[in-house]
Design goal:
237 residues; little secondary structure; two-stranded antiparallel ribbon; 6 strands; 5% strand
Length: 237
């Protein structure tokens, strides 16, 4: 059943969200700059105002049956088990943090498209201006079936990528598990962040920021890479 997609004013102002997504590679609407679809809407590929995936539509013993990956989440995820970066797969690594067995949390939202398994239009609630999502391919962006290709495709083998779904602080939150890391209290405001004490994709990337918040923040970075600033938010080097 289709739902009309209204502006997500309950989450963030429409002008802020639209202003940073429109004309960026995350703009998959008919006017998107790269791979695009046949809908005029941009937010629908991640968000829906009603019937979000994992929303509290039914409960067991008073508890929701599933949690939303991000607010008003609209995109399907796969049952894919990812191969994670850890000391088993990277035996020369001195990794101290605890890595989850597979991708969790906000990173699963990012990889629901960027693993290349599902099409970008694999959404729960369609926009009201189309009966089905179709695609215009873009070399290095999307193929004709709406799957991410090129360097934006992370795949399911994450052993050569920065660790995600990894615990950062110790149980008492008194120090990082890795002595080579900094305390979160030193992170720049509105920059790098943790999610339930874990490093996720969104710790370093801001899906809404195509280089508009600060110089050197493309592609979709949470902090500038000038002088390796993003890396040095966490790493003591």
């Amino acid at each position: 059943m289709k739902h009309i997609l209204f502006a997500l004013v309950a989450i963030v102002s429409a002008s802020a969200l639209q202003g940073q997504i429109a004309a960026s590679p995350h703009d998959l609407s008919t006017t998107g700059p790269r791979g695009k679809t046949n809908t005029t809407q941009t937010c629908v590929f991640c968000h829906t105002p009603h019937g979000a995936i994992g929303s509290v539509s039914s409960e067991v013993a008073g508890q929701p049956i599933a949690a939303q990956l991000i607010p008003l989440w609209n995109h399907s995820t796969t049952a894919t088990v990812f191969t994670m970066y850890n000391t088993t797969n990277n035996p020369i690594s001195n990794l101290q943090g605890v890595v989850d067995a597979t991708v969790t949390g906000a990173s699963l939202a990012c990889l629901s498209c960027h693993d290349g398994v599902l099409a970008v239009g694999a959404i729960s609630n369609l926009p009201n201006d189309v009966a089905a999502i179709t695609y215009t391919a873009f070399a290095g962006g999307l193929d004709a079936t709406g799957h991410i290709i090129g360097t934006a495709k992370m795949g399911v083998d994450l052993t050569n990528d920065h660790p995600i779904s990894i615990t950062y602080m110790n149980a008492g939150n008194t120090a990082p598990l890795d002595p080579g890391m900094k305390m979160p209290s030193t992170f720049a405001a509105n920059g790098v962040k943790l999610f339930a004490n874990k490093v996720q994709c969104a710790s370093c990337h801001d899906v809404h920021n195509w280089g508009t918040v600060a110089a050197g923040t493309r592609p979709f970075l949470a902090y500038t890479m000038t002088a390796s600033g993003l890396c040095l938010q966490c790493h003591t080097k």
